[in-house]
Specification:
By secondary structure, the protein is α/β, with parallel strands linked by helices. Helix content is about 40%, strand content about 15%. It is globular. About 45% of the residues are buried.
């Protein structure tokens, strides 16, 4: 059996879909599994034992190509992708995203069985037109991880446990150990990793509050605080690290995905909004304090520890007080 999984982005969403690939590998070991994913998130899947082939696409780049020359390049890339998907002769294609663009990619496979969510559960309802087996997750499937796993039921695949296959890169692990050693963070130290960036302003806790949290953690909890950051987030991270008085937090170096995973593995607690690094940390089993405003903790909270997430009562993140977050982090740190 040849199976195409379509889950394009974002990083946190791809993390949440990893158990579906792991379940397919465990229950259908002879199946060949390909994953269609955005180029930026593809690094999470290369070398992953649950996936036989990674098919990277660049829909973000395609949307930026507005010139005639750019449009011609996009048309060529789409044509090549369509040929590749058809030549693979997939038996099954699964739309894990529920968007029109993911649905169109599922349709482009021409797989006889095309599985997706029922209309009411699609993020964009028109995507259901591209599938021919539509699944309504059971009421017990409240977290998005469980909802993705429900899409495997037409294949007779049930996951008795949830597994997140994540890569380990020895050289990245060594580089991050060297960085922490140079920064004075000893093995076994209480290390709180803070991720202030998010995909949208409504999911972002104010930078000055992250700074105040870092000051309290270093002064009152004896913790080291490390601020990690992603593309276009350097200024935000530097604002937190440079807040008066300086020296209460460390600025992480630029990291690729294997290096970020290495830092998260060394954390005692990870703090951040509804964003990829927090979900990566939860998948690694690291204690997480998620900060939630407009998104649902029940559906999108850190897997396995949604009880640790803090939900703003009015869905505005600036309503979460520094003291509330501080006490939640101290509780997660333990004695």
């Amino acid at each position: 059996m040849k199976v195409a999984l379509v889950k394009l982005s974002s990083l946190g969403d791809v993390v949440h879909a990893l158990p579906a690939a792991a379940a397919l590998r465990a229950r259908l070991p002879g199946a060949r599994v390909a994953w269609v994913v955005e180029r930026r998130e593809a690094a999470l899947l290369y070398g992953n034992a649950a996936v036989d082939e990674v098919v990277p696409v660049d829909t973000r780049g395609w949307r930026r190509c507005l010139t005639p020359v750019g449009a011609a390049a996009v048309a060529g890339a789409l044509s090549e992708l369509r040929r590749h998907l058809r030549a693979a002769r997939f038996d099954v294609a699964i739309d894990l995203q529920g968007l029109v663009k993911s649905g169109l990619l599922v349709a482009a496979t021409r797989a006889p069985l095309r599985i997706g969510f029922a209309v009411a559960h699609c993020r964009e309802r028109l995507s259901a037109l591209c599938t021919n087996r539509r699944v309504t997750p059971p009421p017990a499937a409240r977290h998005v991880v469980e909802q993705y796993l429900a899409l495997l039921e037409p294949l007779g695949v049930h996951a008795p446990s949830v597994e997140f296959p994540l890569p380990v890169n020895a050289s990245a692990e060594e580089r991050m150990d060297e960085f922490l050693g140079r920064s004075g963070v000893k093995p076994g130290s209480r290390l709180v990793v803070v991720n202030p960036g998010t995909g949208g302003a409504d999911k972002r806790w104010p930078a000055e509050r992250f700074g105040a949290l870092a000051r309290r953690l270093t002064a009152e909890a004896g913790a080291s605080v490390l601020v990690v950051w992603g593309p276009e987030e350097a200024a935000l991270a530097e604002t937190i690290v440079g807040a008066d008085p300086p020296g209460h937090a460390l600025l992480a170096p630029p990291t690729d995905l294997p290096e970020l995973l290495a830092l998260l593995r060394r954390a005692s607690v990870v703090v951040g909004g509804d964003t990829g690094p927090v979900h990566l940390a939860a998948a690694l089993g690291v204690p997480c304090v998620g900060l939630y405003g407009p998104t649902s903790v029940e559906r999108n909270g850190p897997w396995g520890q949604t009880w640790r997430a803090l939900a703003s009562p009015d869905k505005r993140l600036d309503s979460l007080a520094v003291g509330t977050v501080f006490h939640a982090v101290v509780d997660a740190l333990g004695p």
